[in-house]
Amino acid sequence: MADFGMADLFERCPDLAVRETRTVFVPPGDALPAGEYGFLENYCVDSSCDCRRVVIRVCNAQNPTVALATINYGWETEEFYRGWFKSAPPDEAAEMARDITGTCLDLINPQSDYADYFLALFREMIAHDADYVARLARHYREFRRQGNPRRSGNTNRQRPKRRRR
Ligand SMILES: [Zn+2]
To answer: What separation in Å is there between the alpha carbon of 51 and the centre of ligand 1?
Structure first.
């Protein structure tokens, strides 16, 4: 469950990402600079891994390459994620599972002075918007499906030729 090997939903499912990426408009006078912020979704590219989590990069719409917050979130139960941290001591595994289901700021990836604010905003969204949570899980499945295109027919297989007598 390492944090390398994530890719942006925009890379793999651009149409879906354009249609369904959550954006939040912040009016003037708030704690954040006014503007539009996108909650860009990144998912794991390892097709043999089923870690069921998203890494959200929060960016200003004017400047989508700069992450103002990087948030980890897993929508499954704590028990599910404890299974991912089997190699860690049980109390650490429990803590990591609690962090990811509760949402947390990523320790490796960029943050900004506004990171805690965006984390609070994201927690609000998932606490009150079950559709959004379901959408993230659906995007994860679609992202994986796009990464594992079904092979169309096994054209390389040589048919044993029947010998004529
Ligand atoms: Zn993974």
So the answer is: 4
Residue 163 resides in a domain: no
The rounded Å distance from CA 128 to ligand 1 centre is: 26
pTM for this model (two decimals): 0.84
Range of the structural domain that residue 17 is part of:
6-145
- The answer to whether position 153 is within a domain reads no
Residue 161 lies in a domain: no
The reply to whether 39 falls in a domain is: yes
115-128 and 130-147 helices cross at what angle (nearest 10)? 100
Structural domains in the chain (count): 1
CA 146 to ligand 1 center in whole angstroms: 15
pLDDT, one tens digit per residue, over 89-128 is 999 999 999 999 999 998 888 899 999 999 999 999 999 9
Positive or negative, the Cα torsion across 13, 138, 126, 85? Answer: negative
Please write the tens of the pLDDT for every residue from 65-74: 999 999 999 9
* Span from the CA of 117 to the centroid of ligand 1 (angstroms): 27
Tokens of residue 15, six digits: 């149409």
Question: CA-CA distances (angstroms) from residue 33 to 47, 67, 68?
Answer: 38, 15, 12
**How far away, in angstroms, is 93 Cα from ligand 1 center?**
16
- 84 alpha carbon to ligand 1 midpoint, in Å? 10
Please give the pLDDT value at position 149.
Answer: 56
